[in-house]
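R.M. (postdoc): so does anyone remember the format we settled on? I'll just put the C-alpha coordinates first.
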Protein backbone atom coordinates (compact mmCIF):
# COMPACT_ATOMS: atom_id res chain seq x y z
CA UNK A 1 0.00 0.00 0.00
CA UNK A 2 1.45 3.34 -1.01
CA UNK A 3 2.21 6.15 1.40
CA UNK A 4 -0.30 8.33 -0.44
CA UNK A 5 -3.17 5.98 0.35
CA UNK A 6 -2.18 5.94 4.02
CA UNK A 7 -2.37 9.74 4.31
CA UNK A 8 -5.64 10.96 5.90
CA UNK A 9 -7.99 12.94 3.73
CA UNK A 10 -7.17 16.31 5.29
CA UNK A 11 -9.88 18.15 3.39
CA UNK A 12 -12.55 15.72 4.56
CA UNK A 13 -11.36 15.96 8.16
CA UNK A 14 -11.39 19.75 8.00
CA UNK A 15 -14.89 19.68 6.52
CA UNK A 16 -16.07 17.46 9.38
CA UNK A 17 -14.54 19.79 11.96
CA UNK A 18 -16.11 22.81 10.26
CA UNK A 19 -19.53 21.15 10.22
CA UNK A 20 -19.13 20.28 13.91
CA UNK A 21 -18.32 23.92 14.76
CA UNK A 22 -21.25 25.18 12.68
CA UNK A 23 -23.57 22.71 14.43
CA UNK A 24 -22.28 23.83 17.84
CA UNK A 25 -22.78 27.51 16.94
CA UNK A 26 -26.29 26.79 15.64
CA UNK A 27 -27.24 24.86 18.79
CA UNK A 28 -26.14 27.59 21.18
CA UNK A 29 -27.11 30.45 18.87
CA UNK A 30 -30.68 29.24 18.33
CA UNK A 31 -31.07 28.54 22.05
CA UNK A 32 -29.79 32.04 22.90
CA UNK A 33 -32.28 33.55 20.46
CA UNK A 34 -35.22 31.49 21.75
CA UNK A 35 -34.36 32.17 25.41
CA UNK A 36 -33.81 35.93 25.00
CA UNK A 37 -36.81 36.43 22.75
CA UNK A 38 -39.11 34.44 25.05
CA UNK A 39 -37.92 36.71 27.85
CA UNK A 40 -38.67 39.79 25.73
CA UNK A 41 -42.14 38.50 24.77
CA UNK A 42 -42.94 37.54 28.36
CA UNK A 43 -41.92 40.94 29.76
CA UNK A 44 -43.94 42.76 27.08
CA UNK A 45 -47.07 40.73 27.80
CA UNK A 46 -46.93 40.80 31.59
CA UNK A 47 -46.18 44.53 31.68
CA UNK A 48 -49.64 45.11 30.19
CA UNK A 49 -51.26 44.25 33.52
CA UNK A 50 -48.85 45.42 36.25
CA UNK A 51 -46.43 48.16 37.32
CA UNK A 52 -42.74 48.24 36.32
CA UNK A 53 -41.38 46.97 39.65
CA UNK A 54 -43.63 43.88 39.52
CA UNK A 55 -42.71 43.35 35.88
CA UNK A 56 -39.00 43.23 36.78
CA UNK A 57 -39.73 40.88 39.69
CA UNK A 58 -41.85 38.54 37.51
CA UNK A 59 -39.11 38.51 34.87
CA UNK A 60 -36.36 37.57 37.33
CA UNK A 61 -38.41 34.96 39.19
CA UNK A 62 -39.44 33.26 35.94
CA UNK A 63 -35.86 33.27 34.65
CA UNK A 64 -34.70 31.90 37.99
CA UNK A 65 -36.91 28.83 37.50
CA UNK A 66 -34.95 27.99 34.34
CA UNK A 67 -32.21 26.80 36.73
CA UNK A 68 -34.50 23.85 37.61
CA UNK A 69 -34.48 22.79 33.98
CA UNK A 70 -30.72 23.21 33.66
CA UNK A 71 -30.11 21.00 36.71
CA UNK A 72 -32.91 18.40 36.44
CA UNK A 73 -32.73 17.73 32.69
CA UNK A 74 -29.23 16.08 32.67
CA UNK A 75 -30.21 13.94 35.67
CA UNK A 76 -33.43 12.84 33.97
CA UNK A 77 -31.90 12.14 30.55
CA UNK A 78 -29.15 9.97 32.07
CA UNK A 79 -31.85 7.48 33.08
CA UNK A 80 -33.63 7.38 29.72
CA UNK A 81 -33.01 5.34 26.59
CA UNK A 82 -32.43 6.79 23.13
CA UNK A 83 -36.06 6.72 22.02
CA UNK A 84 -37.26 8.10 25.35
CA UNK A 85 -34.72 10.94 25.12
CA UNK A 86 -35.93 11.86 21.64
CA UNK A 87 -39.56 11.73 22.77
CA UNK A 88 -38.78 13.89 25.81
CA UNK A 89 -37.02 16.50 23.66
CA UNK A 90 -39.87 16.61 21.14
CA UNK A 91 -42.58 16.85 23.81
CA UNK A 92 -40.66 19.59 25.64
CA UNK A 93 -40.54 21.64 22.43
CA UNK A 94 -44.29 21.13 21.81
CA UNK A 95 -45.17 22.12 25.39
CA UNK A 96 -42.94 25.19 25.13
CA UNK A 97 -44.74 26.30 21.96
CA UNK A 98 -48.07 25.86 23.75
CA UNK A 99 -46.86 28.06 26.62
CA UNK A 100 -45.65 30.74 24.17
CA UNK A 101 -49.18 30.81 22.72
CA UNK A 102 -50.59 31.13 26.26
CA UNK A 103 -48.29 34.09 26.97
CA UNK A 104 -49.32 35.77 23.69
CA UNK A 105 -52.99 35.35 24.57
CA UNK A 106 -52.35 37.11 27.91
CA UNK A 107 -55.58 35.94 29.53
CA UNK A 108 -54.60 37.45 32.88
CA UNK A 109 -51.57 38.45 34.95
CA UNK A 110 -51.66 35.16 36.88
CA UNK A 111 -52.03 32.99 33.76
CA UNK A 112 -49.17 34.81 32.00
CA UNK A 113 -46.93 34.55 35.07
CA UNK A 114 -47.54 30.80 35.49
CA UNK A 115 -47.04 30.21 31.75
CA UNK A 116 -43.76 32.12 31.89
CA UNK A 117 -42.52 30.14 34.89
CA UNK A 118 -43.30 26.82 33.21
CA UNK A 119 -41.86 27.96 29.88
CA UNK A 120 -38.49 28.99 31.32
CA UNK A 121 -38.25 25.77 33.32
CA UNK A 122 -38.62 23.82 30.07
CA UNK A 123 -36.24 26.14 28.22
CA UNK A 124 -33.66 25.50 30.94
CA UNK A 125 -33.77 21.80 30.11
CA UNK A 126 -33.46 22.47 26.38
CA UNK A 127 -30.56 24.86 27.01
CA UNK A 128 -28.73 22.37 29.20
CA UNK A 129 -28.89 19.74 26.46
CA UNK A 130 -27.94 22.21 23.70
CA UNK A 131 -24.86 23.53 25.52
CA UNK A 132 -23.68 20.03 26.50
CA UNK A 133 -24.00 18.69 22.97
CA UNK A 134 -22.26 21.79 21.63
CA UNK A 135 -19.37 21.07 24.01
CA UNK A 136 -19.14 17.52 22.70
CA UNK A 137 -19.03 18.73 19.10
CA UNK A 138 -16.14 21.12 19.75
CA UNK A 139 -13.12 18.85 19.34
CA UNK A 140 -10.50 21.63 19.54
CA UNK A 141 -10.94 23.54 22.78
CA UNK A 142 -8.60 26.30 21.52
CA UNK A 143 -11.65 27.89 19.91
CA UNK A 144 -14.16 27.30 22.72
CA UNK A 145 -14.74 30.95 23.69
CA UNK A 146 -14.84 32.02 20.02
CA UNK A 147 -17.54 29.45 19.36
CA UNK A 148 -19.54 30.70 22.36
CA UNK A 149 -19.01 34.32 21.28
CA UNK A 150 -20.14 33.74 17.69
CA UNK A 151 -23.19 31.79 18.87
CA UNK A 152 -24.10 34.56 21.35
CA UNK A 153 -23.77 37.15 18.60
CA UNK A 154 -25.92 35.01 16.28
CA UNK A 155 -28.67 34.59 18.86
CA UNK A 156 -28.68 38.27 19.82
CA UNK A 157 -28.84 39.44 16.20
CA UNK A 158 -31.68 37.01 15.48
CA UNK A 159 -33.56 38.54 18.39
CA UNK A 160 -32.86 42.05 17.12
CA UNK A 161 -34.21 41.14 13.68
CA UNK A 162 -37.26 39.38 15.10
CA UNK A 163 -38.16 42.35 17.33
CA UNK A 164 -37.56 45.09 14.73
CA UNK A 165 -38.46 43.61 11.36
CA UNK A 166 -41.44 41.63 12.66
CA UNK A 167 -43.78 43.96 14.56
CA UNK A 168 -46.68 41.64 15.39
CA UNK A 169 -46.46 39.71 18.67
CA UNK A 170 -48.10 36.67 17.09
CA UNK A 171 -45.72 36.68 14.13
CA UNK A 172 -42.78 36.92 16.52
CA UNK A 173 -44.22 34.01 18.51
CA UNK A 174 -44.55 31.98 15.29
CA UNK A 175 -40.91 32.66 14.41
CA UNK A 176 -39.91 31.59 17.92
CA UNK A 177 -41.89 28.36 17.56
CA UNK A 178 -40.24 27.53 14.23
CA UNK A 179 -36.75 28.01 15.65
CA UNK A 180 -37.70 25.95 18.70
CA UNK A 181 -38.72 23.08 16.41
CA UNK A 182 -35.41 23.37 14.49
CA UNK A 183 -33.49 23.26 17.77
CA UNK A 184 -35.40 20.17 18.94
CA UNK A 185 -34.72 18.37 15.63
CA UNK A 186 -30.99 19.16 15.90
CA UNK A 187 -30.85 17.88 19.48
CA UNK A 188 -32.53 14.62 18.45
CA UNK A 189 -30.36 14.11 15.35
CA UNK A 190 -26.95 14.74 16.95
CA UNK A 191 -26.18 11.28 18.30
CA UNK A 192 -23.31 9.13 17.03
CA UNK A 193 -20.62 11.83 17.13
CA UNK A 194 -21.74 12.84 20.61
CA UNK A 195 -21.42 9.28 21.85
CA UNK A 196 -17.80 9.05 20.76
CA UNK A 197 -17.00 12.47 22.19
CA UNK A 198 -18.70 11.55 25.47
CA UNK A 199 -16.17 8.75 25.93
CA UNK A 200 -13.39 11.22 25.20
CA UNK A 201 -14.64 13.52 27.95
CA UNK A 202 -14.96 10.73 30.48
CA UNK A 203 -11.39 9.65 29.79
CA UNK A 204 -10.25 12.81 31.63
CA UNK A 205 -11.37 11.27 34.93
CA UNK A 206 -7.83 11.55 36.28
CA UNK A 207 -8.28 15.32 36.35
CA UNK A 208 -11.59 15.18 38.23
CA UNK A 209 -9.89 15.35 41.63
CA UNK A 210 -9.71 19.14 41.88
CA UNK A 211 -12.51 19.96 39.44
CA UNK A 212 -15.26 19.95 42.10
CA UNK A 213 -13.49 22.61 44.19
CA UNK A 214 -12.90 24.75 41.09
CA UNK A 215 -16.56 24.39 40.06
CA UNK A 216 -17.73 25.56 43.50
CA UNK A 217 -15.36 28.51 43.25
CA UNK A 218 -16.71 29.33 39.76
CA UNK A 219 -20.32 29.14 40.97
CA UNK A 220 -19.56 31.63 43.78
CA UNK A 221 -17.70 33.90 41.36
CA UNK A 222 -20.50 33.99 38.77
CA UNK A 223 -23.11 34.54 41.52
CA UNK A 224 -21.16 37.53 42.89
CA UNK A 225 -20.68 39.12 39.47
CA UNK A 226 -24.35 38.47 38.68
CA UNK A 227 -25.26 40.59 41.72
CA UNK A 228 -23.59 43.59 40.08
CA UNK A 229 -24.92 42.91 36.58
CA UNK A 230 -28.44 42.13 37.75
CA UNK A 231 -28.59 45.29 39.85
CA UNK A 232 -27.30 47.25 36.88
CA UNK A 233 -29.89 45.59 34.62
CA UNK A 234 -32.65 46.47 37.10
CA UNK A 235 -31.42 50.08 37.23
CA UNK A 236 -31.56 50.34 33.43
CA UNK A 237 -34.99 48.65 33.30
CA UNK A 238 -36.45 50.98 35.95
CA UNK A 239 -34.96 54.01 34.20
CA UNK A 240 -36.55 52.89 30.95
CA UNK A 241 -39.90 52.05 32.61
CA UNK A 242 -40.04 55.46 34.29
CA UNK A 243 -40.23 57.08 30.85
CA UNK A 244 -37.05 59.11 31.37
CA UNK A 245 -35.64 57.64 28.16
CA UNK A 246 -36.57 55.06 25.55
CA UNK A 247 -33.82 52.45 25.35
CA UNK A 248 -35.31 50.64 22.36
CA UNK A 249 -33.69 47.67 20.63
CA UNK A 250 -30.52 49.31 19.24
CA UNK A 251 -28.36 48.36 22.27
CA UNK A 252 -28.82 44.71 21.22
CA UNK A 253 -26.26 45.44 18.50
CA UNK A 254 -23.77 46.34 21.25
CA UNK A 255 -24.57 43.06 23.00
CA UNK A 256 -23.90 41.09 19.81
CA UNK A 257 -20.67 42.98 19.14
CA UNK A 258 -19.39 42.59 22.70
CA UNK A 259 -20.11 38.84 22.67
CA UNK A 260 -18.07 38.42 19.48
CA UNK A 261 -15.15 40.53 20.76
CA UNK A 262 -15.21 38.69 24.10
CA UNK A 263 -14.92 35.30 22.38
CA UNK A 264 -11.79 36.29 20.48
CA UNK A 265 -10.17 38.05 23.44
CA UNK A 266 -10.91 35.24 25.88
CA UNK A 267 -9.34 32.58 23.64
CA UNK A 268 -5.92 34.29 23.70
CA UNK A 269 -3.36 31.76 25.02
CA UNK A 270 -6.19 29.19 25.38
CA UNK A 271 -8.16 31.35 27.82
CA UNK A 272 -5.23 31.92 30.17
CA UNK A 273 -6.16 35.60 30.57
CA UNK A 274 -9.95 35.18 30.39
CA UNK A 275 -10.45 35.80 34.13
CA UNK A 276 -8.26 38.90 34.10
CA UNK A 277 -10.12 40.38 31.13
CA UNK A 278 -13.46 39.66 32.80
CA UNK A 279 -12.21 41.27 36.01
CA UNK A 280 -11.40 44.49 34.14
CA UNK A 281 -14.85 44.46 32.50
CA UNK A 282 -16.43 43.93 35.92
CA UNK A 283 -14.63 47.04 37.25
CA UNK A 284 -16.10 49.06 34.36
CA UNK A 285 -19.56 47.70 35.17
CA UNK A 286 -19.22 48.69 38.82
CA UNK A 287 -18.27 52.22 37.76
CA UNK A 288 -21.22 52.16 35.36
CA UNK A 289 -23.67 51.51 38.22
CA UNK A 290 -22.28 54.53 40.05
CA UNK A 291 -22.66 56.64 36.89
CA UNK A 292 -26.35 55.75 36.56
CA UNK A 293 -27.07 56.14 40.27
CA UNK A 294 -25.45 59.56 40.52
CA UNK A 295 -27.42 60.86 37.52
CA UNK A 296 -24.40 61.11 35.27
CA UNK A 297 -25.00 60.88 31.45
CA UNK A 298 -27.28 57.83 31.15
CA UNK A 299 -26.08 57.00 27.64
CA UNK A 300 -22.54 56.33 28.94
CA UNK A 301 -23.80 53.97 31.61
CA UNK A 302 -26.10 52.22 29.15
CA UNK A 303 -23.30 51.69 26.60
CA UNK A 304 -20.93 50.26 29.20
CA UNK A 305 -23.68 48.02 30.55
CA UNK A 306 -24.52 46.42 27.20
CA UNK A 307 -20.89 46.02 26.18
CA UNK A 308 -19.96 44.39 29.48
CA UNK A 309 -23.11 42.21 29.57
CA UNK A 310 -21.97 40.44 26.39
CA UNK A 311 -18.56 39.76 27.93
CA UNK A 312 -20.17 38.31 31.06
CA UNK A 313 -22.52 36.01 29.11
CA UNK A 314 -19.61 34.57 27.09
CA UNK A 315 -17.47 34.32 30.25
CA UNK A 316 -19.83 32.22 32.36
CA UNK A 317 -20.88 30.03 29.41
CA UNK A 318 -17.31 29.29 28.23
CA UNK A 319 -15.96 28.87 31.80
CA UNK A 320 -18.53 26.25 32.81
CA UNK A 321 -18.14 24.41 29.50
CA UNK A 322 -14.37 24.36 29.93
CA UNK A 323 -14.33 23.09 33.52
CA UNK A 324 -17.21 20.65 32.91
CA UNK A 325 -14.85 18.54 30.79
CA UNK A 326 -12.84 17.71 33.91
CA UNK A 327 -15.82 16.74 36.09
CA UNK A 328 -17.45 13.34 36.46
CA UNK A 329 -20.80 14.66 35.22
CA UNK A 330 -20.06 17.07 32.34
CA UNK A 331 -23.68 16.95 31.15
CA UNK A 332 -24.75 18.57 34.44
CA UNK A 333 -22.09 21.26 34.66
CA UNK A 334 -21.71 22.33 31.00
CA UNK A 335 -24.83 24.52 31.01
CA UNK A 336 -24.77 25.47 34.69
CA UNK A 337 -23.45 28.98 33.99
CA UNK A 338 -26.79 30.23 32.73
CA UNK A 339 -28.55 28.50 35.65
CA UNK A 340 -26.34 30.18 38.27
CA UNK A 341 -26.78 33.54 36.58
CA UNK A 342 -30.59 33.25 36.44
CA UNK A 343 -31.16 31.85 39.92
CA UNK A 344 -28.90 34.49 41.49
CA UNK A 345 -30.71 37.26 39.63
CA UNK A 346 -34.02 35.90 40.90
CA UNK A 347 -32.76 35.55 44.49
CA UNK A 348 -31.50 39.13 44.76
CA UNK A 349 -34.37 40.79 42.91
CA UNK A 350 -36.13 42.05 46.02
CA UNK A 351 -32.95 43.32 47.68
CA UNK A 352 -31.66 44.84 44.44
CA UNK A 353 -34.88 46.78 43.77
CA UNK A 354 -35.05 47.96 47.40
CA UNK A 355 -31.44 49.14 47.24
CA UNK A 356 -32.03 51.09 44.03
CA UNK A 357 -35.31 52.56 45.27
CA UNK A 358 -33.77 53.73 48.55
CA UNK A 359 -31.72 56.41 46.74
CA UNK A 360 -29.15 55.88 49.49
CA UNK A 361 -25.99 56.40 47.44
CA UNK A 362 -23.69 55.82 50.42
CA UNK A 363 -25.25 52.40 51.07
CA UNK A 364 -24.99 51.51 47.37
CA UNK A 365 -21.29 52.39 47.32
CA UNK A 366 -20.64 50.33 50.49
CA UNK A 367 -22.41 47.29 48.99
CA UNK A 368 -20.42 47.69 45.78
CA UNK A 369 -17.11 47.87 47.67
CA UNK A 370 -17.96 44.71 49.61
CA UNK A 371 -18.87 42.90 46.39
CA UNK A 372 -15.79 44.20 44.62
CA UNK A 373 -13.52 42.89 47.41
CA UNK A 374 -15.23 39.48 47.48
CA UNK A 375 -15.04 39.14 43.68
CA UNK A 376 -11.35 40.07 43.70
CA UNK A 377 -10.52 37.33 46.21
CA UNK A 378 -12.63 34.62 44.55
CA UNK A 379 -11.40 35.60 41.08
CA UNK A 380 -7.77 35.21 42.17
CA UNK A 381 -8.39 31.77 43.69
CA UNK A 382 -10.34 30.61 40.66
CA UNK A 383 -7.73 31.86 38.16
CA UNK A 384 -4.88 30.04 39.93
CA UNK A 385 -6.84 26.78 40.28
CA UNK A 386 -8.18 26.98 36.74
CA UNK A 387 -4.71 27.41 35.24
CA UNK A 388 -3.48 24.42 37.26
CA UNK A 389 -6.16 22.01 36.08
CA UNK A 390 -6.14 23.08 32.44
CA UNK A 391 -2.34 23.15 32.12
CA UNK A 392 -1.05 20.55 29.66
CA UNK A 393 2.28 19.05 30.77
CA UNK A 394 5.01 19.25 28.15
CA UNK A 395 6.05 15.79 26.99
CA UNK A 396 8.43 14.50 24.40
CA UNK A 397 6.60 13.23 21.36
CA UNK A 398 6.63 9.45 21.20
CA UNK A 399 5.70 7.12 18.39
CA UNK A 400 2.31 6.65 20.11
CA UNK A 401 1.63 10.37 19.87
CA UNK A 402 2.07 10.34 16.09
CA UNK A 403 -0.56 7.64 15.52
CA UNK A 404 -3.76 8.84 13.86
CA UNK A 405 -6.76 9.36 16.12
CA UNK A 406 -10.05 7.50 15.70
CA UNK A 407 -11.53 10.00 13.24
CA UNK A 408 -8.38 9.92 11.10
CA UNK A 409 -8.34 6.10 11.14
CA UNK A 410 -11.94 6.01 9.99
CA UNK A 411 -11.17 8.50 7.23
CA UNK A 412 -8.24 6.37 6.03
CA UNK A 413 -10.36 3.20 6.05
CA UNK A 414 -13.22 4.95 4.24
CA UNK A 415 -10.83 6.07 1.48
CA UNK A 416 -8.91 2.78 1.22
CA UNK A 417 -12.00 0.58 0.97
CA UNK A 418 -14.23 3.10 -0.86
CA UNK A 419 -16.96 2.94 1.77
CA UNK A 420 -20.05 5.05 1.26
CA UNK A 421 -20.93 7.65 3.88
CA UNK A 422 -23.60 5.35 5.36
CA UNK A 423 -21.21 2.38 5.38
CA UNK A 424 -18.62 4.51 7.14
CA UNK A 425 -21.17 5.35 9.85
CA UNK A 426 -22.01 1.65 10.26
CA UNK A 427 -18.30 0.72 10.35
CA UNK A 428 -17.69 3.32 13.06
CA UNK A 429 -20.47 2.00 15.29
CA UNK A 430 -19.37 -1.61 14.79
CA UNK A 431 -15.78 -0.97 15.91
CA UNK A 432 -16.29 1.71 18.58
CA UNK A 433 -19.27 0.25 20.45
CA UNK A 434 -20.34 -3.13 21.85
CA UNK A 435 -23.97 -2.55 20.83
CA UNK A 436 -25.88 -5.35 19.16
CA UNK A 437 -27.22 -4.92 15.63
CA UNK A 438 -30.75 -4.00 16.71
CA UNK A 439 -29.44 -1.23 18.98
CA UNK A 440 -27.23 0.13 16.19
CA UNK A 441 -30.17 0.02 13.76
CA UNK A 442 -32.36 1.92 16.25
CA UNK A 443 -29.65 4.53 16.75
CA UNK A 444 -29.34 5.07 12.99
CA UNK A 445 -33.13 5.06 12.51
CA UNK A 446 -32.99 2.24 9.96
CA UNK A 447 -34.35 -1.31 9.95
CA UNK A 448 -32.20 -4.23 11.04
CA UNK A 449 -32.47 -5.71 7.51
CA UNK A 450 -31.11 -2.49 5.98
CA UNK A 451 -28.26 -2.49 8.51
CA UNK A 452 -27.40 -6.10 7.62
CA UNK A 453 -27.20 -5.14 3.92
CA UNK A 454 -24.70 -2.37 4.79
CA UNK A 455 -22.64 -4.81 6.90
CA UNK A 456 -22.58 -7.40 4.08
CA UNK A 457 -21.28 -4.70 1.71
CA UNK A 458 -18.61 -3.66 4.23
CA UNK A 459 -17.46 -7.29 4.70
CA UNK A 460 -17.19 -7.67 0.92
CA UNK A 461 -15.16 -4.47 0.45
CA UNK A 462 -12.82 -5.15 3.39
CA UNK A 463 -12.57 -8.90 2.65
CA UNK A 464 -13.48 -9.79 6.23
CA UNK A 465 -16.14 -12.10 7.64
CA UNK A 466 -16.78 -10.79 11.14
CA UNK A 467 -16.88 -7.78 13.43
CA UNK A 468 -13.57 -8.92 14.91
CA UNK A 469 -11.99 -8.65 11.47
CA UNK A 470 -13.24 -5.09 11.12
CA UNK A 471 -11.86 -4.25 14.56
CA UNK A 472 -8.46 -5.63 13.51
CA UNK A 473 -8.44 -3.37 10.46
CA UNK A 474 -9.39 -0.38 12.61
CA UNK A 475 -6.69 -1.04 15.24
CA UNK A 476 -3.94 -1.61 12.68
CA UNK A 477 -4.32 1.81 11.06
Amino acid sequence: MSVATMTPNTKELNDKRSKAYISAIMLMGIFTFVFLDCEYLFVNMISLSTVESKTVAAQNYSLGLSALGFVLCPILLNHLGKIAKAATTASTAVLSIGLIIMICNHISYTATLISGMLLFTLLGGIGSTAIYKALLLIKNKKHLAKTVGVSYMTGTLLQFINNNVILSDWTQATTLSIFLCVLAIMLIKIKSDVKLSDKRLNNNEAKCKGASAIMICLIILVALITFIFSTLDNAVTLYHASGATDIGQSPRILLALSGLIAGFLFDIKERKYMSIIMYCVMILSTICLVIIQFSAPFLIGLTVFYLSAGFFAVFFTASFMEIAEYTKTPSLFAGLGRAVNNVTAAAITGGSLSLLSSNNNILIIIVELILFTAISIVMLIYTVKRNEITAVPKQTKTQEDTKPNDEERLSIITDNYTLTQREAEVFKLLVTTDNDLQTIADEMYISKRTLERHITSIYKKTQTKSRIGLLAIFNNK
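R.M.: ...and that's the designed sequence above, right after the C-alpha coordinates. Also worth knowing: The chain has a mean pLDDT of 81. The longest helix spans residues 10-46.
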